[in-house]
Amino acid sequence: MLARSRQLLASAVFLLDAVLIVASWLAAYWLRFHGLALPAPRGVPPLELYLWSGAVLTPVTLLVLRALQLYRSGRTTRLSRELLTLAQGIGLSTAVAGLGSFLVRGELARSVLMLFAALAIGSLWTARAVIRLALRALRRRGRNLRHVLVVGTGPPAVSLIEKMLRQRDYGLAVRGVVAVERSLVGTAVADCPVIGTVSDLPNLVEESGVELVYLALGRAEWEAEQDALGRLSDSTATTRLVPDLARSFTLNAAVEDFDGTPVVLVTESPEQGWNAVLKRSFDVLLTVPGLLLLAPLLTALALWVKLDSRGPVLYRQERVGINGRRFPMLKFRTMRADAEAAGAPGWTKPGDPRRTRAGVVLRALSLDELPQLWNVLIGDMSLVGPRPERPVYVDRFRASIPRYMLRHHVKAGITGWAQVNGLRGDTPLERRVEYDLYYIEHWSLGFDVWILLLTVFRLFRDESAH
After folding, report:
1. Which helix (H) or strand (E) holds 41?
2. Under the phi-then-psi rule, with left for phi > 0, alpha for psi from -120 to 50, and beta for the rest, what region is 69?
């Protein structure tokens, strides 16, 4: 019954999307040539042309959305992820329509294509949000639930059960926990009763009527996992395997399909695929006008540094960036030319005598970092990311600080989450790494914008800048 309901819902969503796509296409035609009263130098094209084009565009768009798996059960999928995938699907379909029009005779107006993309994304987003809200309301009232058995009593099972209980919108009702050892029957795991052992699984599934069985066993319990899979092979319940990553540090963990073999990505950079394009575009779009607007200030600061003390204006220092790649990072010189002539490099201290008079001001206001906009423009750095360190420090820190090298899964930044929280210069490295990894795991374009705003806010009151 539940499987039939899911199929009916998926079919209804599919048909609704088809109606909204057709409506968006016709509305785009009407708005361009009638509603917005825009000039049409080549005249108003016949409606029949756009009706035939819509008859082709609609199934193509639906096929694209289906290929993006938007009609599979998205019970545990974040709404933001679903909306982003929808926008990508509509964008791809619109690009295909534009290319097809160009290759034929270019009869479809580009303005109609752009209006269609905006209307289709807006209407599909609204429909999906309304559906998601309606389903959440039903699940909170005990309707549209999927009943679940969780196999396992260790950390993976506890974490999974707590998420199911906390996220009631998922509509996953835990009917019981299945243990490996008989002695645990009658106890509770995360407030859920242990109702049997792996050997009881077939009977438990049949008696409880569950639709989903999650295997959340520890890596040391692989034999029990194999036993459970064998016993569930003759069951009508859907089986899902939860990998035990409790003893592994994960960073943007995910699962990919390697030619039919599921592979768990334990540590993965968020700067992959579309995210990489989005972040790079964001950097360039802000850096180019930034360099133009700041050109007079950069020139004045360069003259000040040159006249204030002997030595070059810019200081090039080798730093370690993404994937451990080294690059020359630029700064305005704020130290005497012979600052490191005495021996090994060291952190700058408050009242450091090696600083020049101009350097004191530049460091206090972080203006010495402005030349790194060039590093961003050529792709060595990003506006936001973990601050890069010198190779000598990287070699030292990776040997003493756990997970230190994970911060090199993204491009280094001019500013970062650690810096806007007062962790820069001679501050605890462990806390800086903690903040850097938090940034990598929770990266989004909005997070970058927030960090940039905080950077400007903290510019004149950063006590750690010296």
Report:
1. none
2. left
pLDDT at 67 (0 to 100): 87
Length of the chain: 466
Residue pair 321/381 in contact (Cβ under 8 Å)? The answer is: yes
Tell me the DSSP string of 196-212: EEGGGHHHHHHHHT-SE
At 77 the three-state DSSP class reads coil
CA 169 – CA 30 distance, rounded (Å): 39
Distance (Å, whole) CA 62 – CA 50: 18
Contact 157, 177 (CB under 8 A): yes
Band of pLDDT at residue 288, cut at 50, 70 and 90 = very high
Phi first, then psi: give them for residue 192, nearest 5 degrees: -110, 135
pTM of the predicted model over 0.85? no
Tens digit of pLDDT for each residue in 111-134?
A: 889 999 999 999 999 999 998 888
Instruction: For residue 113, give the nearest of 57, 68, 39, 64 by alpha carbon.
Output: 57
E-strand stretches of 168-260: 172-179, 188-189, 192-197, 212-215, 238-241, 254-258
